[in-house]
Amino acid sequence: MPSDSSMPCGARIAGTGSAVPATVWTNDDLAKTLDTSDEWITQRTGIRQRHVCIAGDESAFSLQCEALSKALADAGMEASELDLIIVASVTNEMTCPSNACRVAAELGAAPAGAFDLVAACSGFVYSLNLADSLIRTGRHRAIGIVGCDAMSNVVDFNERTVSVLFGDAAGAAVIVRDDDPNKGCVYQTLQADGSGWKALFLPRKESDVPPESPPCDIEMGFLRMEGREVYRFAVSKFKNVIEDAMQATGLGVDDVSQFICHQSNIRIIESAKEKLGLPDDKVYVNIDRYGNTSAGSVGLCLDEIRRAGKIHEGETIILVAFGGGLTWASSVWNL
Q1: Catalytic residue among 121, 185, 261, 301
Q2: Which of 181, 139, 170 has the alpha carbon at shortest distance from 9?
Q3: For 1-335, which CATH class?
Q4: 175: closest CA among 300, 296, 17, 62?
Q5: Cβ neighbour number for residue 283 with a 10 Å cutoff
Q6: In the annotation, is 27 catalytic?
Q7: pLDDT digit string (tens) for 64-76?
Q8: Block means of pLDDT (10 residues each) for the chain, length 335 residues?
Q9: Which parts of the chain are beta strand (E)?
Q10: 99 with 92: CB under 8 angstroms?
Q11: What SS3 class is residue 7?
C-alpha cells in the first residue's frame, strides 16, 4: 500500500488475538503413558497442563487464522486493510506455500504481501520489531503478525524430558501507522548465535544429527534438546536482554507497566525476576496453563494481558524472548 514516507511516524498495536486448541492434556494425562508425575513436571517447569492439536481440523494454520481474525476484530479492521502478513513458526505444515500466504487467502487479505519467519520461540518478538521498522519507513500502514506453533506435532510423546514442556497456541497482533513518532518501538534487539544450534534442533534425517550429539531415544523428525545447555542460555539471556533494554532507554522498573516474557520454564522466569528485582504483578505468567508454546508464547501473553486490562495507552512495556537458533530478541514499546 503506497503511503507518504516523507513524514516521521510511529506505530500502534491496534488489536491482538490468540487461539489455542480445544483439547487439554494435564500432567496426569501424560503420566498415564510416561514415567513421570504431576509433581515432577510442576516442580521442574511450573507447567500443569497444555493445549494440543488432536482434532482433525486443528493445526498451526487453523490457529494462525483464528488468532489473526480475532486481532483484526479487536482492531475494528478488515483483512483487506492489511498490506503485509508475517507468520512466525517452526511447525508450519509446508514451506511452500508459506502459511502466511495461506492465512492471507483464508482471511481475504490479498494482495497483501506475506511471508513466514523462522526464529523459534523468538519469532513473535522478531516479527513485532520488523513490523514496527517497516511501518516507520512509510512503506506500510497496517501489518498483521502471528506467532504460532503446534509443538504437539514435533515432540515425541514416548520420551518424557522434552514432551512434557510444550503446548500449542497462537498469538497475533495488528500493527498500524500512527502519526505520533513517539509511539511504538523505541528500542529493539534481534540477535542470534548459530554456533549453539545443536542445543535445540529438529532433525528430519540421520545426517541432520551432529556426530557429537549425545545418544537419545527421541525418534527422527522430533525435537531434540540438551536441557542443561538451553537452561543456562535462557537464564543468562533473559536477564541480559532486559538489563540491556532498560539501560539503553534509561528506564527503571517503575517506568515499565509490564514485562512480557517468553514462557519457557517457571524457574527461568523466577530467576530473572529475583536478579532484576521485578515485582510479581509486572511479570505475567501463564506457563502453568499452556506450557511452552514456542513462537505462540509472547503473543498469547500480550493478548491476555491486554484483555485483562493490565496495560493501557501511554504506558511502556518490554517484550523479551529467546529460543532455538539460538535466537533472542527484545522490544521496548510506548503504547
Answers
A1: 121
A2: 181
A3: alpha beta
A4: 17
A5: 18
A6: no
A7: 999 999 999 999 9
A8: 67 98 96 93 96 90 98 98 98 96 98 97 98 96 98 91 94 97 96 93 90 83 88 90 97 97 95 93 97 98 97 97 96 98
A9: 10-19, 23-26, 49-52, 84-88, 113-117, 142-150, 168-178, 184-192, 200-201, 224-225, 258-261, 316-323, 327-334
A10: yes
A11: coil
The single residue of 140, 262, 265, 301 carrying the catalytic annotation is 262
Tens-digit pLDDT profile for residues 1-33: 444 556 789 999 999 999 999 999 999 999 999
- Asked if 92 is an active-site residue, the reply is no
Cell numbers that stand for 319 in this block: 517484550
Burial class, 258, CB count within 10 angstroms (exposed 0-12 / middle 13-18 / buried 19+): buried
CA separation for the pair 98, 232 (Å, rounded): 33
User: What is the C-alpha end-to-end distance of the chain, expressed in Å?
Assistant: 24
Q: Give the whole-angstrom CA distance, residue 168 versus residue 289.
A: 11
CA distances from 321 to 202, 262, 280, 324 (A): 19, 5, 18, 11
d(CA 186, CA 129): 10
For residue 194, give every residue at least 6 positions away whose Cβ sits within 8 Å of its Cβ, in sequence order, or none: 325, 326
| Residue 130: predicted pLDDT | 98
DSSP H or E stretch at residue 160: helix 160-163
pLDDT at 160: 84
> How far is 45 from 65, CA to CA, in rounded Å?
29
- pTM summary value: 0.95
